[in-house]
Amino acid sequence: MLQKMKTIVFAGITAFIAVSLIKYPDQSLEASIRGLNMWWEIVFPSLLPFFITAELLIGFGFVKFIGVLCEPIMRPLFNVPGVGSFAWAMGMASGYPTGAKISARLREEKQLTQIEAERLVSFTNASSPLFIFGAVSVGFFYDVKLGVVLGASHYIGNALVGVCMRFYGRKTEKKTATPAKKKVSIIRAFREMHRTRIHDPRPFGKVVGDAVLNSIQTLVMVGGFIIFFSVFTKLLYIAGVTPIIASIFQYVLQLLTLPGDLALPLLSGLFEITLGANLISQDETANLLEKIIIVSFILGFNGFSVQAQVASILAPTDIRFAPYFFARIFHGLFAAILTALFYTPLYLNRTSFDFKGVPVSGGVKEETWKGILLYMTEIGPFITFAALLTALLIIISRTRKI
């Protein structure tokens, strides 16, 4: 019976999208172009270097080296091996879905158990500093100082999720033998790195080529999800579905003493973060604190668009999606609460953190983040085109050899 219901739901959603695309072709094209531009100019060029670097570092054993050294930190805090530190750091630096991509690769390399991989995925997918400071703080709210509040709430909340998830699956793990603790040393870390590289039979050129192709393949998939959810969110709004669902969120927000007018932007943000954050920043009924509390929640929740990307990355592995989904709810709640706590000391009283009591002007920093965003939109398409061309040449070269 459950499977039949799923069939009806999936078929109904697909039919709704098909009919809406035919009925509203202009609006669908506009939303599709918006999603494409975001991927073409920002997402692809900003994530590609991180993806390729991560693939190479895993292939050459450097991640194993870091894992041995970070084991005393990651195991007590998050109950994952030291290699998880690499996924955590890269996930925070480059943004989602980098953490899921690296966690899946580490699971494929048998450096993580299933439970450990599920723990790791739950707290290694975070918004990048470029998105928090550049797009949200400067691009939407025109105030770079808000990035400090949003960033601190987001990353500390993410760490709290990792601490909570350390208890996930402990009953299952008790059934398996616990590996013996080994002394941490640089010599042993180097040996593990060397052993990992030696056990990989691929030549250097093949490793680099695979890193490029795998990264581009993942980013093309990410682009497809961005475009799809951009169109899907627009169609829901045009068809009048979004306002109906937003009325439920409006009641919940009023219970939390938050403006009910933020219900529609919140719902949009649950589907697509950028659209939701932009709509929240434009709301005129709520004060600044109320706005950034909602923004922090949707940043932690990741949005269904990002969650779909993560689900697609995890699908080839045995890593289950449910722990990641529930962790996103916790992350959103933690980030929202921390934003309320950090707002006064990190934003209203910001000058108390500066040396010699000199007030800080956000002008220079704001111009810096604006410059980065502008620079990315200028060179981003060229990087994307060059990378796609490189991937095509690699595929042609390998096809000829076969």
From TrEMBL:
InterPro entries from the UniProt entry: Gate_dom (IPR011642), Spore_IM_YlbJ (IPR014226)
Record-annotated Nucleoside transporter/FeoB GTPase Gate domain positions: 43-139, 220-315
TM annotation in the entry: 7-24, 44-66, 120-142, 148-168, 207-229, 235-253, 292-314, 326-348, 372-396
Matching Pfam families: Gate
Keyword Transmembrane annotated: yes
Keywords: Membrane, Transmembrane, Transmembrane helix
Name of the protein in its database record: Sporulation integral membrane protein YlbJ
Species in which this protein is naturally found: Lentibacillus kapialis
Upper taxonomic lineage: Bacteria, Bacillati, Bacillota, Bacilli, Bacillales
